[in-house]
Amino acid sequence: MKSITLWAAALTLLTATAVQADSVSDTISKFKEAEATQPFFANAYGYAVFPTIGKGGVGIGGAYGEGQVFKGGVHTGNSKMAQVTFGLQLGGQAYSQIIFFQNADAYEEFTSGDFEFGAQASAVALTAGASAGANTKGTTAGAGTAQAENKYSGGMAIFTMAKGGLMYEASLGGQAFSFDPVN
Questions:
Q1: Of 145, 141, 172, whose CA–CA distance to 157 is shortest?
Q2: Using one digit for the tens of pLDDT, what is the confidence trace for 108-157?
Q3: CA dist list (Å): 9 to 63, 89, 114
Q4: Whether 5 contacts 89, CB under 8 Å
Q5: Which residues on neighbouring strands pair with residue 107, listed in sequence order?
Q6: What is the model's pLDDT at position 93?
Q7: What are the angstrom distances between the C-alpha of 152 and each of 106, 142, 149?
Q8: What H or E segment, with its residue span, contains residue 39?
């Protein structure tokens, strides 16, 4: 079991270093180009952006990434994301993630200290022409040209953008976030 855990950790590190990390501003620009996220940038109270999250696993997996949190376009703090997953999984990948906060309550919930998305949380995976309603309770993305509905679940909407790697996964796990305010 120890060797599986070490193998999962090694895959995560290899994936994270194999794909060059973008800057926060480059990642925000990429998300702003996606038709599905444009309404969120126009109306969100704030957002957290993670330029590169590395993920890997063999039975037991993990993911890690560091990002920044914004309110009204102003950098208010830094955040770290960690994830542990259990189930059928093999491989490694890297992706970018953005979490939009609909209002002050959602922003305060995320920035209050240690915040977690449960295993039921899901994100809309953006690809060329992807569109879907984003929420944290089971929405999936579909290819198309229609603009995404401006939907939040629990005051938050999550989008991801693949950067590289290959991973087969049918696993359960949640994401945990920390927040350190900028002084």
A1: 141
A2: 999 998 899 876 566 788 863 333 334 343 333 333 223 345 589 889 99
A3: 9, 13, 22
A4: no
A5: none
A6: 87
A7: 10, 17, 9
A8: helix 38-43
The whole-angstrom separation of Cα 31 and Cα 151 is 17
β partners of residue 123: none
Between CA 121 and CA 3 the distance in angstroms is 29
Q: d(Cα 47, Cα 124) in Å, to the nearest integer?
A: 15
Consecutive H or E run containing 59: strand 46-71
Structure tokens at 96: 């970018």
Give the pTM: 0.75
Tokens 């995404």, residue located: 148
What are the structural domain ranges in the chain?
2-170
In angstroms, the CA 159 to CA 37 distance is 8
